Amino acid sequence: MEPTPISTTGLHLLSELLDVRAPGAHAWPEADLRAMLDHLLAAPLTLALGMRPGRIEPLLRQEKLPNDFTLGALYEHPAPPASLLKVVKDAAKSGANDPWNNLPADLLLVVYYSVIALAKVRGVGGVSAIKPEALERGLKWGTHLGWVNPRLRALLEDALGRR
After folding, report:
1. What does pTM read for this prediction?
2. Domain segments of the chain: what residues?
3. 9-26 mean pLDDT
């Protein structure tokens, strides 16, 4: 079989071939998403979501938390600081909407919804102005993902039960 000349190939096919962010270009297996979520939870907040240097450190100092405070530790904190919840929520939302972000949007959306759920469950106000209907849809979506760990799934379910 003779190769097809590039000049006769549809431009939409070429652009999708060259665009690593093209729809359907990367369908992450559940095992990979689970591993990425575990990695994010174990990462220090200063590195977890690719926030600009110097954004988290002052908040950690203000709350008397160590520089190696992890995203997972935020979920375990009995009274998570609103300032940290808000900055993590904003970074996750921004990253999920950024087509050039290296992390899968679904992974970042799970972080986004679970941080809002954490604020709701722990009674921390001022973190999000998301409409209740949109929050409920997002929480339900997160509870049905097979790669979300049991602890975060329970948090999402707990927030759903607190309408």
Report:
1. 0.83
2. 28-160
3. 50
